Amino acid sequence: MIYYATASTPRVREAMCADLLGQIITPAAGNRLEPWVNWIADNGIYSNAYPGNPGYLRWLDTHADARSRCRFAVAPDVVADHQGTLERSWPMLRPIRHTVGRVALCAQNGATAEDMPWDYIDAVFLAGIVECAPCGWVPALESLPQTTCPYCGRQLTEWKIGATAAAITAEAKRRGLWVHMGRVNSHARLDRARQMGVDSADGTYLAYGPDINLIRLLGWLQPDDWRWIRAERSDRTPPTKPRRTRGTEHVQRCLWDASTWSLSAPQRQATP
Question: pTM, whole model, 2 decimals?
Answer without folding.
Answer: 0.86
